[in-house]
Amino acid sequence: MVGPQIEDGYEVAELTDTSRTEALNGGAKAVVPRAITPHGRRLDRVERAREETRIRARRRLRRFPLLLDALAILLGFALGVVLHNLIATGASDRLSWLWVFAAVPVQLVAFWVYGLYSRDRRRLFSTNFPDHVHLFHAVVAGAFGTFGVSHLVSALAGGPALSPGAVFGIAAPVFLTVPFTRAASGELARRRGHIRSRVIILGTGYVSDTVARRLQAFDDVELLGCVDDPGGPAPERHSLLPVLGKVSDLPRLCDELGADRVMVAFSPASTNALAETLRHLAPGVRISVVPRLFDLLTWRSHIDDIHGLPVMDVAPPVLGAGPRAIKRLLDVAVSLSLLGLLAPLWLAIAFVIRASSPGPVLFRQQRRGRDGRPFSIYKFRTMRVGADDEKRDMMDANEVDGPLFKIKDDPRVFGIGRFLRATSLDEAPQLINVLKGDMSLVGPRPFVVSEADMIDGWAARRFDVRPGMTGLWQVSGRNDLPYEELRRLDYTYVASWSLWWDLRIILQTPACLLRRRGAY
Are residues 113 and 126 in the same domain? Predict the structure, then answer.
């Protein structure tokens, strides 16, 4: 460990692997004031000024959604007026464009009443899907408000008033423009390096590492490090992140590093000590808690209150005949639509594959489906012919754990095949499997027969439903996930399935495909 230095009244030291262990076992403190980075490197004046500028920019971005929503509402109402004027004969004489601008503050008030801004600020990362129901209600409430205001102004000052059909028809596009502009601005902000949250994890070990791996997938989340106290079984005391200090140092570290969120994972510190430390955090620091039985809980779990004691339920699956029928109708409708739209692209891919490598365009392989029944999965061929026969000789090069077999730079993959795998275009023919009923749009990952035969116990619940083209495994990291985490995600999906969850996963999938994380 490097000798201590005094700066700004604090003792600082370079954080090596040895010093992290010492810090957790009661050795010298690994204190990180604002004058150094989370990894222990001292900041010069220029770097310190840049860091403070980033913090101020992040605070300004928190006020940005209000202006963004105002522009989105304005655009939505403008589109609504244009569409209404095209449909309703002579509507341009009866509708004043003034109502487009007058409706903006009414809608913004409705968004605020329905908590769209407070919930967004409380979230760890940007996502609009949980707000869709609240957004729909807010748009309807805003339309009612606009309708009432138009009739009040008409009664007091004269002039045209909006009819019920006109006001709701004009407001309808807002339900599309608001999510679109939020998603587009969020993606633009991430690409420009704007940080939404600076996070410190409380705890070290398996759960802390799991949280860290998940958060590293988000470009707008910056992990500063973790804090913890000595204790716990020796094999579990490790972390993917630098250990910044003890639990008692957390309030000071949040202030010095500009952290705005603490993720509470599992720690050997006493519950009373943890609660006391968290109560001393500044009001602007958000706290997120990983529950003890997180393997059983999902976003569908509800929180009840027993005289101040929060209790969470395990969301049951909704696997009745009605939801299953709707899911199947959705599969057929979407797969038919995409098969028609993607036909020209498929022809182009087929031509390139035939020109790049001798052999068939499509690759077929046996997988386990619903109730364990085998079926032939269709994919665009990305490997040379006979690649399956070479697998046995390449087992030593396997880069994933469990019974799965994956190599990032697999020598069996030919040129265009790497592009198809990186973009997931090689999986497009699975739409045929969806149409045939072997697969669904959303479901557990379809395992090869030999791999699926090694799954038993609670993890075998995955065979209760059809495997999917996408699923929790897809939006959570794909091939980068450890095998045990993959099994847990599949079980969680089946044990708490709902049609609304399928829609959420479908809407999250395009962004995951564009980032290409775990695609190889």
Answer: yes
For residue 142, give Cα distances in angstroms to 21, 108, 134.
56, 8, 12
CA-wise closest residue to 364 among 438, 419, 422, 443: 438
Task: Mark whether 164 and 149 lie in a shared domain.
Answer: yes
Instruction: Report the domain count for the chain.
Output: 3
- Helices then strands, each counted (H, E), the chain: 21, 13
Give the model confidence (pLDDT) of 28-63 as tens digits.
Answer: 333 333 333 444 444 445 555 555 555 555 555 555
Residue carrying the six token digits 């949280």: 211
The CATH number that applies at residue 227 is: 3.40.50
Taking CA atoms, 339 is separated from 16, 364, 380, 430, 506, in Å, by: 54, 18, 14, 10, 17
SS3 404: coil
Based on the fold, state whether residues 395 and 471 are members of the same structural domain. Answer: yes
Same domain? 366 vs 511: yes
* Residue 162 burial (CB count, 10 A): 26
Confidence (pTM):
0.66
Total Cβ atoms within 10 A of residue 275: 11
Q: What gap in Å lies between CA 34 and CA 502, rounded to an integer?
A: 44
Say if 312 falls within a structural domain: no
Domain boundary among 155, 190, 225: 190
Residue with tokens 């969850």: 501
- Beta-bridge partners for 42: 36
Residue with the bigger pLDDT between 196 and 371: it is 371
Q: Strands of 177-317 (E only): list them.
A: 197-202, 221-227, 243-245, 261-264, 286-289, 303-306, 309-312
Say whether both 286 and 401 belong to one domain. Answer: no
Q: Which two tokens stand for residue 307?
A: 């005289």
Residues 409 and 325 reside in one and the same domain: yes
Residue 86: HSE in the Cβ half-sphere, 13 Å Cα cutoff: 8
Select from 459, 469, 481 the least CA-distant residue to 513. Answer: 469
Over its C-alpha atoms, the chain yields an Rg (Å, rounded) of 27
Query: 481 or 343: whose pLDDT is higher?
Result: 343
* Whether residues 411 and 481 fall in one domain: yes
Domain extent at residue 272: 5-60+195-290
